[in-house]
Amino acid sequence: MDPAYQMLVRILGFFLWSSAAWHKLRSFGEFRALLQQYHLPLPQLHGVLSGVLIGLESLLAVFFCWSGALTLACWASAALLGLYTAVLVREILAGRTDHACGCAGPAGTAGIGWPLVWRNVILAVVFLMATRTAPQRAWTWFDTFTVIAASAALAVLFVAIEALVQNRFRRIARRADGV
Q1: pLDDT 10s digits, 75-131
Q2: CA-based nearest residue to 12, from 100, 102, 110, 78
Q3: Dist CA 25 CA 5 (whole Å)
Q4: Nearest partner of 57 among 118, 8, 102, 113, judged by Cα
Q5: What share of the chain is helix, strand, coil (3-state, %, to 5)?
Q6: How many CB atoms lie within 10 A of CB 154?
Q7: Which end of the chain, N or C, is surrounded by fewer C-beta atoms within 10 Å?
Q8: Which residues pair with 100 in a beta bridge?
Q9: Contact assessment for residue 110 and residue 101, using Cβ atoms and an 8 Å cutoff
């Protein structure tokens, strides 16, 4: 894959996992309580699982900063997103969509649904595409411009999508309250 794309994926991976870990760490008690709503086995280990997930997300953020670990970071990100997606699908199919997803950002407080599943699948594909071998070529000023512009565009797109998801769940909640 193109070196500019790989740099963009590094930025995306660092932003995604560091913000997710920070969100969970900042509200550790709430995150631990949220895991109870997912009906995961061995509830007595939810505190340990909470810490492990925060540790994994933090480690992934660090791996995206380490030049020799991009492939590992991308594969591990796709695997963790796959795990999160499997749990989301299980919850959706069981009809348990009224609790928060536990994600970072505005959608973190919204209920879960298929848009979150698709978001995870798309992110996993983006990460896996970056594992392809990059062609050997010199980095140019245009690569720098591309990475900066694309990073800004992705940040705006991320915020817009998260706001749309949050608004969708607000409308659903208002309808349920009869407003």
Answers
A1: 999 999 999 999 999 999 999 888 877 776 544 556 788 888 998 999 999 999 999
A2: 78
A3: 30
A4: 102
A5: 80, 0, 20
A6: 15
A7: C
A8: 111
A9: yes
Q: Which range has highest mean pLDDT (85-89, 161-165, 169-173)?
A: 85-89
Please report the pLDDT score of residue 72 as a whole number: 95
Q: Tell me: pLDDT of 26 over 50.
A: yes
CA distance linking residue 80 with residue 83, whole number of Å: 5
For residue 27, give both structure tokens: 């509200």
Residue with more model confidence, 165 or 14: 14
**Which one-letter amino acid corresponds to residue 51?**
G
Q: How many other C-beta atoms can be found within 10 angstroms of the C-beta atom of residue 21? A: 20
pTM: 0.80
CB 139 within 8 A of CB 130: no
Q: What is the mean pLDDT of residues 21-44?
A: 84
The DSSP code sequence of 33-76 is: HHHHHTT-S-GGGHHHHHHHHHHHHHHHHHHHHSGGGHHHHHHH
Place of tokens 């919204």: 110
Total residue count of the chain as it appears in this document? 179
In single-letter form, the type of residue at position 17 comes to W
User: How far apart (Å, rounded) are the C-alpha atoms in residues 166 and 160?
Assistant: 10
Q: What secondary structure letter does DSSP report for 111?
A: B
